[in-house]
């Protein structure tokens, strides 16, 4: 019997974590304020109450300690899920992620698995102070041995977090914090159904004029731009990458061969970024199909600005539509 529930991204993550903990007693949750408080965004709300302090652990303010402990727990057969409170706090744990978490499976020729998930609320749009609105996903996508995922909707949040937890490889799970509790993004989910595979790119809107590829919080921007472009007689195909490493660019290549144009969209700065990689790979694979250069719409190559300026920093509908016009004018 199906159990349909209409969920926000935040609630979908909460229920996905709950289901994973119910199915496997080796799943643990750990992080700053994840227990009694339920996390600053309330994603782990109620889990410590129901599963106890031995499985939902409030940790000290020490990201290197959180991730280092998770590595040790994974060696002993547990499946730890670490929450990094804000993406800008992840860097004290960068050494543990890059030197231990990403390497142990390879170093031991597969004898030691690292089923660790690191949940990372990321991106801007919440009017926060420094170190609370960044997009560091490209740094981790560059490290071999890590799987990097970014969800954009409630369906992928619910199934994606469970699939990440079941993975024997370490997964960095980037979550668009400004969309956690958006009522407009509520989706109906059969929480007892059979999951679709989340770790692949997906065409979320079909079109013929140009392709827009995005991930995380930028997918909503791309879909809003596609709706606005339709009023102008332009048909934009929108692709949600979902997995940032390894990149699944097959659907992107197929789309570009059809439309001849690509706009790569992301909140992150443009220099040495995922949009750079997408542009390079599409140029390599689809050179003779392109009717215009690949264009990128991104954040600026500056530190994330104060809250008063973030609306000018973040890529929006108008910047996407301007890029489409530039591509069509080529």
Helical content class: 25-40%
Ranges where pLDDT stays below 50 over 5 or more residues in a row are: none
Distance between the termini: 54 Å
What pattern of helices and strands is seen along the backbone?
EHEHEHEHHEHEHEEEEHEEHEHEHH
* General form: globular
Radius of gyration: 20 Å
Oligomeric grouping of the chains? single chain
What's the tally of helices?
A: 12
Structure description:
This protein is of the alpha/beta class. It is 35% helix and 20% strand. It is built from 12 helices and 14 strands. The protein has helices at 9-23, 47-51, 63-75, 94-101, 104-107, 137-141, 154-166, 218-230, 250-259, 274-286, 310-313, 317-328; strands at residues 4-7, 27-31, 56-58, 79-83, 117-122, 147-150, 171-176, 187-190, 202-205, 210-214, 236-240, 243-245, 262-269, 295-299. The strands form 3 sheets. The chain has a 7-stranded mixed beta sheet, sandwiched between helices. Strands 9-11-10-13-14 form a 5-stranded mixed beta sheet, sandwiched between helices. β10, α8 and β11 (236-240) form a beta-alpha-beta unit. α8 (218-230) packs across α12 (317-328). The radius of gyration is 20 Å and the shape is globular. The protein starts with a strand and ends with a helix. The mean pLDDT is 96.
């Amino acid at each position: 019997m199906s159990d349909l529930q209409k969920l926000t991204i935040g609630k979908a993550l909460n229920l996905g974590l709950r289901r994973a903990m119910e199915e496997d007693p080796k799943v643990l949750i750990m992080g700053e304020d994840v227990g009694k408080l339920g996390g600053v965004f309330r994603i782990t709300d109620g889990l410590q109450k129901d599963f106890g302090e031995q499985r939902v652990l409030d940790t000290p303010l020490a990201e290197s300690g959180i991730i280092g402990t998770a590595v040790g727990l994974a060696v002993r057969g547990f499946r730890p899920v670490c929450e990094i409170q804000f993406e800008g706090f992840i860097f004290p744990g960068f050494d543990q992620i890059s030197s231990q978490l990403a390497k142990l499976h390879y170093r031991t020729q597969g004898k030691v698995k690292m089923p660790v998930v690191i949940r990372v609320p990321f991106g801007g749009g919440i009017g926060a102070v420094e170190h609370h609105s960044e997009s560091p996903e490209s740094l981790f996508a560059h490290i071999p041995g890590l799987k990097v995922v970014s969800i954009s909707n409630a369906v992928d949040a619910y199934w994606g977090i469970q699939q990440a937890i079941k993975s024997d490889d370490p997964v960095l799970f980037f979550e668009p914090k400004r969309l956690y509790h958006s009522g407009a993004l509520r989706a109906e989910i059969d929480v007892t159904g059979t999951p679709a595979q989340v770790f692949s790119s997906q065409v979320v809107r079909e079109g013929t004029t140009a392709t827009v590829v995005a991930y995380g919080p930028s997918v909503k921007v791309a879909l809003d731009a596609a709706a606005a472009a339709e009023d102008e007689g332009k048909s934009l195909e929108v692709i949600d990458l979902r997995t940032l490493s390894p990149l699944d660019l097959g659907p992107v290549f197929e789309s570009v061969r059809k439309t001849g144009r690509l706009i790569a969209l992301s909140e992150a700065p443009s220099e040495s970024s995922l949009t750079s990689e997408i542009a390079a790979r599409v140029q390599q694979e689809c050179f003779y199909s392109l009717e215009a250069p690949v264009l990128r719409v991104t954040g600026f190559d500056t530190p994330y600005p104060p809250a008063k300026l973030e609306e000018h920093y973040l890529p929006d509908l108008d910047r996407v539509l301007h890029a489409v016009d530039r591509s069509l004018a080529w």
